[in-house]
Amino acid sequence: MRIRNWITVPKNLLVKALNCTPWAKSRRLHDDLAHAAVHCFYKALDEIHDLHSQLGQENAQRIVLLERIETDVRERRALNSALAAFGDQFDDRMLAISLAEKLGAEEVAALAHLLAETGRKGAADMWLELHNLAREDDDVEDAELVEAEAA
């Protein structure tokens, strides 16, 4: 009968009585610590996952930047090669003599600027000099024509 009476004790009182024992307190503390440890472990896993994702995104951005840099380097090399070939072709006195008088002042100035920027300062000066000589010859011829018409 005693056992039966003991079993019929309300559950909340029994739980309360069992929780007051040192063993129960120790077990509850152990369970709480285990729960906290599991929680911290999963939180750390989430942070590792987030950092791994962030690192993946940063690596992808680095790859894109490296590809852009490589493309820029290729384009600059191609442009430098084209400018060197241009400079080689227009660093020719005979070509300058035949074309300088046919080009306008702005065109020759632009050509001279381009040659100077590609490291061919002498060729730039040559084009400007030959163009100025051709213009002076034209001015002298124009002045002679005006004088001849006036006479």
Tag the structure with descriptive keywords.
mainly alpha
**Count of alpha/pi helices:** 6
Give the CA-based shape: rod-shaped
Derived from helix and strand composition plus strand pairing, the structural class reads mainly alpha
Distance between the termini: 155 Å
Beta percentage is under 5%
- Roughly how many Å is the radius of gyration? 46 Å
For the biggest sheet, the summary is:
none
The overall average pLDDT, rounded, is: 82
Tell me the number of strands. 0
**Which regions are unreliable across 5 or more consecutive residues at pLDDT < 50?**
142-146
One letter per element, helices H and strands E, the order comes to HHHHHH
Helix content: over 70%
Tell me the count of domains: 2
Task: Explain what this protein looks like in three dimensions.
This protein has 151 residues and is mainly α. The chain folds into 2 domains: 1-86; 91-151, no CATH class. It has helices at residues 2-7, 11-19, 22-90, 93-100, 105-117, 121-150. Helix 4 runs parallel beside helix 6 (121-150) and helix 5 (105-117) packs antiparallel against helix 6. The radius of gyration is 46 Å and the shape is rod-shaped. Mean pLDDT is 82; it is low at 142-146.
